[in-house]
């Protein structure tokens, strides 16, 4: 019989679930081999109850992963019903339509048994450095080019590895040692999670997780429904333009708010395209839930309860509900725009909660030999500026809507042999407004090796800068150059020895009319290099005299 849990104990145990997932995530980051996980934290940990309902997440988990994991867990239980899981089993998949939306992300789940009783599951997810195929490129034209796809299968049975499956993975990836270093970090992380959950149960004399799960989910659902009810009933629509590969498309949404429920319909969005920027529905659902949660209950950890008041639909075959065999490797370069799409739809209804558009982040993959001569794939992130909000300037160079850490220059140089010449903030790149958008940055790197470096790029916000909100202005657009000449933002790019590659990161959008910005705030911006003297006059109508220390409008 389950133990009754009062509200005080529920709060304590809920925090403990978060602490457990945080410890699991840290264990993965500290034991992983790849730059993407150990430096950029491209990973997540989620705890589920015996029914596969999420009840806990690591604080620094990737938003995409915590949004897709509940669907993945349900699909794993569909493939292996509860009675077919045994202690020590490890179930995995990287199927884009069952997992996170593209092949490099591996989902790893382990059951938690208390004696003979199945009480829950631990899932870890991380972006593997390679999964074979052509590589992670926006120019792939079908899913079969994007590497090995593992259906939902058991990597370990009763604690023993499936040697054939291990050999299959090893024979299909570049840098197998690095890939398995990351994969086994996930496996060990699940083991850590199982141990910590059993310790929690023993400490609080819990025979199972039923009451704890019900309490967490019930309280979260109650909180988000209350916040949704504060949004006026109605249908809210928006359209945004997004770059694909050599072309543009539209994303459309209609949000129907009725009482404590939100229905999000993406009908009217563009069709799937012939390049790897298509978005499976699992990823669309994830960023829809993420955006609504940011606007309602951002301080409550994610779990099943936060998704119950939300329904998501998108037409099959559209770019936000791509079907096999559409390539999806760069699904983030379109899927991330779900956030400003929904924010924009609700801008008039809840102007005090929405954020102006973010400059987002650049992801590119270096494929080839690392400095040591070993074949590998290494990912690198650079961040643009955040959008401003009512009462808040946007943060500079902050990834959004992802939360990857930015790879340190020293690590990048050591891993690739490419030298970072400089990285600096871009003056005037933040969108003008009563509250200024966050600044982008410029980063230049030189191929100081004696061989070519191949980059696979997923640039965005080159044609459509981050838009402002409530009268704020757009931020600066993103652009890419080789030896000072523009290059396309997506696809394959070869950097020859001695050539320089420069990225100009996008600025965030401004919030409110720039003429309402306090001249003293503009003066402070000029003093710290965020705004030029010319930009102060042009964009804010403020005359700045640095010598006199004055600012007048």
The chain-level mean pLDDT equals: 95
The main β sheet shows up as: 7 strands, antiparallel
Query: Total strand count, please?
Result: 22
| Spatial order of the strands forming the largest sheet | 2-1-5-4-3-6-7
Tally of DSSP helical segments: 12
| Outline | globular
Number of individual domains? 3
Radius of gyration: 24 Å
Helicity level: 25-40%
The low-pLDDT segments are none
Strand content: 15-25%
Distance between the termini: 71 Å
Category from helices, strands and their pairing: alpha+beta
Write the layout of secondary structure elements.
Blueprint: H1 7-31, H2 35-38, E1 43-49, E2 54-57, H3 63-79, E3 90-93, E4 105-114, E5 117-127, E6 153-157, E7 160-161, H4 163-170, H5 176-203, H6 210-229, E8 234-243, E9 248-258, E10 261-265, H7 281-296, E11 310-313, H8 332-335, H9 338-345, E12 361-369, E13 375-383, H10 409-416, E14 418-425, E15 441-447, E16 453-458, E17 479-482, E18 485-486, E19 490-495, E20 500-504, H11 519-527, H12 533-540, E21 543-545, E22 550-552
Parallel strand pairs: 10-11
Antiparallel strand pairs: 1-2, 1-5, 3-4, 3-6, 4-5, 6-7, 8-9, 9-10, 12-13, 12-16, 14-15, 15-20, 16-19, 17-18, 17-20, 21-22
